[in-house]
Design a protein that fits this description.
By secondary structure, this protein is α/β, with parallel strands linked by helices. Helix content is about 35%, strand content about 15%. The protein binds pyridoxal-5'-phosphate (PLP).
Length: about 450
């Protein structure tokens, strides 16, 4: 059957009306937009009827594939009841049910759920909660107002607060005059270690710098924010084993709240439901978004402990209330999708079935060392970053203007695979539901695309 959508007028109108995120529109206008009209399982289909494998989970959100019947049905059933009602002064059924489910699966100690609608807002909420907690807890510490964040690796969203705790100059430097200052420490990026050491002989010497920052500033620091296990947007930087645990211990030692940003790594992406589980870490605040609805609808949550929650209890004139809320907070349709997402994790035993696929991926990535411009291969569960370099031994990056990452993903597109790079890092982030054959095909296309562009 012929597609009823006229693809050329859509392309024209896209260029006429849409300003795309994180996109140099001059480049965009010179190219041909790929307009997606459908998805099913691991595949996307464009308006011209071409079918592609989705190798990046529609930017790190899709969990069990596109058009999962159970999530489709849960959304339709909820729409048949009510699509939105407010959590300001009222409650709703899916928001309550999901809150309970999230607390049941979250790391122990996280007992309260505050909803919002994007990863960025979930981070804003964590920052404001941490700040306000110290101001008004029974034994207040009003000087604890600052945050420790990771330079050159932190990405926590694009709103001003979350950019303030960000550390990727390319995205964040322009806005510096608008941002609040943080205490910045180096994140582990073992391939380009700022101390020129190598793991494990280094004994994670970078932790000493985190400890000195804490030692020097703890009296004025409210919290430390980190992505557990993987600093994702910085280039899928996988932390060395034991690092996260050590950060938790340091936060406890210096009485600083630990904020775990699980927006990218949560919901199975690293092979565990939450990345904190790898090192049995219990954060004081945890941000979740991206995969929470299975990749269907915008929803986010900030989870926290009784200790923090209770510091906000008081008479109304004590002004301890958390004055924060977004209009769509706890949207019932999004919460219904999220419950269906969690049901699939249980019914399909998703995480159990994921383990052999993680190993299969690990094995098939070894072959990439044959490609002389592959500098580093990083993997944590189903998150993979392949860093391309102009020269392997001195680890010399490609010139930015070469757009090497973009060229590789355009090559992959010709071969029927949609992926998106982070600079010179080629990212593979498949749906957890991907089949072995689909996974092999994704890896094969990435290999061929890198080879074609770099040789
Ligand atoms: C994507 C992301 C965010 C921001 O989420 P949005 O929904 O895009 O606002 C925050 N933190 C991390 C770790 C992310 O990957």
């Amino acid at each position: 059957m012929r597609d009823q959508i006229d693809s050329s007028s859509l392309e024209r109108d896209d260029k006429e009306y849409i300003w795309h995120p994180f996109t140099q529109m001059k480049d965009w206008l010179a190219g041909k937009p790929l307009v997606i009209s459908e998805g099913f399982g691991s595949y996307l289909k464009d308006v011209e009827g071409n079918v592609y494998l989705d190798g990046v989970s529609s930017l790190w959100v899709t969990v069990h594939g596109h058009r999962r019947r159970e999530i489709d049905e849960a959304i339709m059933a909820q729409v048949g009841k009510i699509s939105h009602s407010t959590l300001l002064g009222l409650s709703n059924v899916p928001a309550i049910q999901l809150g309970k489910r999230l607390v049941q699966i979250a790391p122990p100690g996280l007992t309260k759920v505050f909803y919002s609608d994007s990863g960025s807002t979930s981070v804003e909420i964590a920052l404001k909660m941490a700040f306000q907690y110290w101001q008004q807890r029974p034994d207040p510490r009003p000087k604890k107002t600052r945050f420790i964040s990771f330079k050159n690796a932190a990405y926590h969203g694009d709103t001003i607060g979350s950019v303030s705790v960000g550390g990727i100059d390319l995205y964040h430097a322009t806005y510096r005059p608008l941002l609040f200052p943080t205490v910045q420490v180096e994140a582990p990026y073992c391939y380009r270690c700022y101390k020129s050491l190598s793991y494990p002989e280094c004994g994670m010497a970078c932790l000493q710098d985190v400890e000195s920052a804490l030692d020097q500033h703890h009296h004025e620091v409210a919290g430390l924010i980190i992505e557990p296990m993987v600093q994702a947007a910085a280039g899928i930087l996988v932390a060395p084993s034991g690092y996260l645990r050590a950060i938790r211990d340091l936060c406890s030692k210096y009485d600083v709240l630990m904020i775990a940003d699980e927006v990218a790594v949560g919901f199975g992406r690293t092979g565990r439901m939450f990345a904190c589980e790898h090192e049995d870490v219990r954060p004081d605040l945890m941000c979740v978004a991206k995969g929470i609805t299975g990749g269907y609808l915008p929803l986010a949550a900030t989870l926290t402990t009784d200790r923090i929650y209770e510091a906000f209890l008081g008479e109304v004139d004590e002004n301890k209330t958390f004055y924060h809320g977004h209009t769509y907070t706890g949207n019932p349709v999004a919460c219904a999708a999220a419950i269906a997402n969690l049901d699939i994790f249980e019914n399909d035993r998703t995480l159990e079935h994921l383990q052999p696929k993680i190993e299969r991926l690990r094995t098939s990535l070894r072959r990439f060392w044959e490609l002389e411009h592959v500098g580093d291969i990083r993997q944590c569960g189903f998150m993979v970053g392949i860093e391309l370099v102009q020269d392997r031994a001195p680890k010399i990056p490609y010139p930015v203007r070469d757009k090497i990452g973009v060229r590789v993903i355009m090559e992959a597109r010709k071969r029927g695979l949609i992926i998106r790079p982070l600079g010179d890092v080629i990212v593979i982030l498949p749906h957890l539901s991907v089949s072995n054959d689909e996974l092999d095909r994704i890896v094969e296309v990435v290999f061929e695309s890198i080879r074609t562009v770099t040789e």
